[in-house]
Structures are given as C-alpha cells and as structure tokens.
Amino acid sequence: MHFTTTFSKFSLLVVFALHLTSGQLLTVEYSSVTLPFPESSVRTFYSTGDKIYLLGGDFEMSSGIWSFSISSDTVEYVTAMPGRGSRGTVQSDTAGNIYYLGGGNIGTSNQVYKFDPTTNECTLVATLPLDVQDCVAIKYNETSDTVHIFGGDGQFIDILTFDLLQFNTTSQVDVLPVIVNQGTGVRVGNKAYIFSEGQVENTAVLELDLDILRMMAVGPANLPSITLFPSSVYDGRHVYLIGGYAPSNMTTPIDGLIQFDPVSFNNEFIPVANFPVEGASYFRVSPATVYVPDLNRIYFFGGSSFNYTTDEFKIHDEIFYIDLDPLTPTSRSTDDFGCEGRMDGLYPHPTNCGMYVACRNHEQIVFNCEPDRQFDPITKTCKFGTPCV
Ligand SMILES: *[C@@H]1O[C@H](CO)[C@@H](O)[C@H](O)[C@H]1NC(C)=O
Ligand SMILES: *[C@@H]1O[C@H](CO)[C@@H](O)[C@H](O)[C@H]1NC(C)=O
Ligand SMILES: *[C@@H]1O[C@H](CO)[C@@H](O)[C@H](O)[C@H]1NC(C)=O
Ligand SMILES: *[C@@H]1O[C@H](CO)[C@@H](O)[C@H](O)[C@H]1NC(C)=O
User: Fold this and answer.
1) Is the pLDDT of residue 122 over 50?
2) Where's the Chitin-binding type-2 domain (predicted)?
3) Ligand 4 centroid vs 307 CA: distance in angstroms?
C-alpha cells in the first residue's frame, strides 16, 4: 500500500515536470450539463454547426438519439432508434444521413439504422450478413459511400464492405493478419490507423491501406496493451488515443491523451489536467469522443471506469472537452466580433453570413453553418436561402 502511494506521487511529479518543461498544459473543461443517464459506448456524430449527435449506448440510452448543443451546453432527446444500439459504429453518407451499424436486440447486432437529421426520422434500412458489434468501421474516403467494417466479435479477421446507398455488402474472409476486436480507428487519407485488443502482443499501431485492404503494424511497439474499449479522434494532423488500457505497469499514465503522428509513426503521451480518471482508476470503456475542427476541441461523453483502489466500476455521465490550442505554437486567429458586454446568445458573423458567433460568459465561439446555409438572425438558425446582408 505504502509503496503504491509513493509510486503514484512520484509519477505525479514527473507529469508535473513535463508540464513545466514543455509549457503545454491541456485541461479538461467540464460542461454544465451531463448525459441524460450515466452511459458507456455512446456513439457520436459531428459534421459542422452546433450539434453533436449521440446515438445508443450500453444502458438507458441504448435505443435513442440525443443531440448536444455546443453553443448552449444543452442535451436534447431527438428520436428513438428502431431497436437497440449498443457497441455498434456510426457513419454518414454523402447526402448527410447518419447510419448506426450494428443495431439489434441483445445477442444480435446486424441491423443498420438510417437517421435523417433534417427530418429526425430513424428507420431500419438493412440487415448485415454478420454481427458487427465491437467492430471498427472506416469509410473508403470522405466523399465515398462505401464503408469497411472489420474486427469485432463476429469477424475478427474478415472485412465486410457495405454500400450506404444500395445497402449491399461484399465480404473478404481471412484478410487481416491479426485479430482486431473492441478497437477504435480513424481514417487519415487512404489509410486507417487502428488501436485494438489485437495489439496485445505487439503494442504497435495497425495501419490498414484502404486501397488494397492490407494491414500491418507501424511505428515503435511501445503503446500500452489495449485490453478494453479505447476511442480515437483525428484533428487533421495527429491521431489521439484515449483510454482502453490499464495502469498496471505505470509506464503510460492514464490521465491524458496518447498522440500518434501518422507521418513519423511516433507516439507521445500528453498529460491533461483535471482528467476524470487518474492513478489507480482508468477508462475500461473510453468516453465517446468527437473532434470539432472550428473550435480545435475534442468533446467527450460518458464512459465507464474501474478503480483498483476500491475495486469499483463507475458509469460516467460527464460531458467535457479538451482544447488542443496549447499544442499549437501559434494560436488560431479568431474573428474580432467581441462578446465583451454582450448577452449570451447567437449573433450573425460580422463578415460571413455562412457563419455565426456564439457568446457565452463574454467569450466568443465562431461556427460555420452547414454547407449552402446562411445564418438567420431572427430564428437564430442556419437556413437555405437566407438573404445575405
Ligand atoms: C473517393 O472515392 C471515390 C470512389 O468511391 C472516388 O471516385 C473519389 O475520387 C475519391 N475521392 C478522393 C478525394 O480520393
Ligand atoms: C453494390 O452494388 C453496386 C452495383 O450493383 C456495385 O458497384 C458495388 O460495388 C456494390 N457494393 C458492395 C459493397 O458490394
Ligand atoms: C506489466 O505488469 C504485468 C503484471 O501486472 C506483468 O505481467 C508484465 O510483465 C508487465 N509488463 C512489463 C512490460 O513490464
Ligand atoms: C479511486 O478510489 C479512491 C479510494 O476511494 C479514491 O480516493 C480515488 O479518488 C478514486 N479515483 C477516482 C479517479 O475516482
């Protein structure tokens, strides 16, 4: 017991020293609102604008869709899904519809639900030939309607390719060199970077070439062993891995982000102050994550943690974000609107009617409307055909 205490104090000092030398200090900022229920395995979707969609989960949120408003810090119920959605994956087509891949009752996870965010309708559109729970799903490219689904309970080393418009599938059997399961991954150009249970032996990042569907390990084999459910985001430069590993060896701390560089293949631990788990507590199921480019923030929702000291699981309901600006040497230039002295609310952008400004506590956040829409100052929404003034 004494040894453990001393050891963790020592590692805190090391982390603190890192902050001082690098001058980089990322901090968790908690939202004033929480999820409607404590929840793990929520799936997120974000494209542009103010809304982050939250789909499904392991418990009370498992058959519904909610939305989180970044500017007003509120969570709203949107609609029910046709069935349960737990540990599936989310993708979108080029028309802007959102798909939950892996819905179904307990024991089945082969249904595809289509959610149209313009009508808020959610329907069952396809049944896949395999269960796709705990899979990774990666679109071929940004403007493609083809998704590769792989890993997971039903197809450890197979790849199922699904067409989001025609709902047909093609499967390729035995194509992955290692078992991928309960993993996470992001697309960077025509490659996908995967972190999963399959890495327990080699602890390196897995790269999947989306053109030829070949997977290999890249970079140093120095990641912590991923044993559970991590999550990941891509900010256009780096991939960030969050959670999914236990603090057994204390080589990689728990309270921060692992930053992976898809150019050099190196990775680095970035400590984060105020992180919801630390020391002997870690995220078994990482919070759902999403990167919001306009704000350069990663948003986090819920998750489930285990505390070695108390031997207790905790399902989280926190919503929080990490601003990545301190990692960028020159800060983003912000348009000079000025929320000083203004009431909280949404205002037209001074020079671009396809954008708007949210003021909160006298701080400004600039948002883009969805493509081809303009901000309407009367209804305070982005609409088609609003005249630009
Ligand atoms: C994306 O994939 C489609 C084929 O699905 C192709 O026609 C298009 O050129 C690709 N776009 C980019 C940016 O590579
Ligand atoms: C779906 O069908 C279309 C046309 O029939 C074909 O071009 C496409 O490759 C198919 N997609 C998949 C994923 O099988
Ligand atoms: C990490 O700790 C586990 C026991 O908790 C041990 O079996 C394993 O060998 C350790 N790994 C390293 C790299 O020290
Ligand atoms: C884990 O449990 C210990 C003992 O109750 C507590 O002091 C610590 O704050 C807990 N850790 C977290 C991250 O909740």
Assistant:
1) yes
2) 336-389
3) 6
